[in-house]
Amino acid sequence: MSYFKHDSAYVDDGAAIGAGTKIWHFCHVQAGAKIGENCILGQNVNIAGDVVIGNGVKIQNNVTVYTGAQIDDYCFLGPSCVFTNVTNPRSEINRHSLYEKTHLKRGATLGANSTIVCGTTLGRYSLVAAGAVVTKDVPDYALMMGVPARQTAWVSRHGHILAKVGALDGIYTCPESGLRYELKAGTLRCFDLDEDALLPETMRQGVKTYDELKGVQEFCKWHS
């Protein structure tokens, strides 16, 4: 077996698990689920059949990923975040053939206790704040907060709010990595690095907390 499974976890026959993945206490991976390489499933995670999960995904404790969900590479699912797959569920009515799709694109993050209403797509490297309720599609790199969730800022691939670079219109920089981003016609893109490429090793180890870098963000905001 090329992956790790705790003795208390269940992996049904017919589930596909990639090399290097770790499945911890009391998890259940159902038949038909596909999980990529080097993923981490924390305690009490349930993966339904037909769910597709990419490489390098981290799923924290007490998360159920229902049929209809697609989780792309390097997404982060915070503790007790919630997925749904039917907009109008009723106990008396069987809608098993009508499950709605939810798609988390590469690098998206769901904060603790956030809720993702089905039928939505979350863009690459978007970040949903703790407790937020997402009811509509989310742009790439968008920071979503509140109930219902609304975009409050743009964030970098490292998860920091982006500030403009000097007087350059539409150009933003990440205070942690120094990577630059450009906003054009409502779409944010990184032009220093291929967005589908792995981060360089020198950029994959955090060295300062969010609060430590928050001061840099504020300085850039008021001096641009």
Walk me through what this model shows.
The chain contains 1 helix and 26 strands. By secondary structure, it is mainly beta. The strands form 5 sheets. The chain has a 9-stranded mixed sheet with strand order 1-4-7-10-13-16-19-21-22, with no helix packed on it. It has a 6-stranded parallel sheet with strand order 3-6-9-12-15-18, with no helix packed on it. It is globular and about 55 Å long. The N and C termini lie far apart (54 Å). The relative contact order is 0.08.
Summarize the structure.
With 224 residues, this protein is mainly β.
Oligomeric state of this protein: single chain
Number of continuous helical runs: 1
Radius of gyration from the alpha-carbon trace, in angstroms:
19 Å
Number of strands: 26
What portion of the residues fall into strands of 2 or more residues?
25-35%
Mean pLDDT across residues: 93
Q: Gap between N and C termini, in Å?
A: 54 Å
Order of helices and strands: EEEEEEEEEEEEEEEEEEEEEEEEEEH
Structural class: mainly beta
Uncertain runs are 219-224
Largest sheet: 9 strands, mixed
Task: List the main descriptive attributes of the protein structure presented here.
mainly beta; six-stranded parallel β-sheet; 6% helix; disordered C terminus
Write the layout of secondary structure elements.
Layout lengths: L3 E2 L4 E2 L4 E2 L4 E2 L4 E2 L4 E2 L4 E2 L4 E2 L4 E2 L4 E2 L4 E2 L3 E3 L4 E2 L4 E2 L18 E3 L4 E2 L4 E2 L4 E2 L4 E2 L4 E2 L7 E4 L4 E5 L8 E2 L6 E3 L6 E5 L2 E4 L19 H13 L2
Parallel strand pairs: 1-4, 2-5, 3-6, 4-7, 5-8, 6-9, 7-10, 8-11, 9-12, 10-13, 12-15, 13-16, 14-17, 15-18, 16-19, 17-20, 19-21
Antiparallel strand pairs: 21-22, 23-24, 24-25, 25-26
